[in-house]
Amino acid sequence: MVTEPKNQDVNVTQSADEPERTFTQEEVNRIVSNRVAKYADYEQLKEKAKAFDQAQEDAKSDLQKAQEKAASLQTEIDQLKKRDSVRAMRDEVAKETGIPVSMLTFDTEDECKKQAQMILDYIKKTPGYPAVRDGGEVGTVSKGTAKQQFEEWAKEALG
Length: 159
Hints:
The protein is mainly α. It is built from four helices and no strands. It has helices spanning 25-38, 42-97, 109-125, 146-158. The protein starts with 24 loop residues before the first helix and ends with a helix.
């Protein structure tokens, strides 16, 4: 960078008492060249400032990208932790109630316990398969076990 010349410019301001001063062409050229010399590297400085601003913008963009990625990963971690805690809670409720884990669908312990209790209540109300005493035919009396009855039927039917 060019250093600024010290006090080489002629004082252009005048007081009211002094007569108007005129400058020679050499003095005007010197004044203009001194002022132009101050800004000789202006374009170079302008380019450096532009490059600096762009580097800051790029760094800011990289920082924003990193922050967005960190936020996304944190969200994913939170979801996985929640899923794991819900799974552990469902396992615990299933163990306590005897209901299979696959039948528990709620996300809180209270809701899962209520759901398990409702399933248990339904199971108690629903009767099992009806007992068939005679194989389903009217007027017949069953003889032996189901296996024995099947063997007898097969002999009669197939010969």
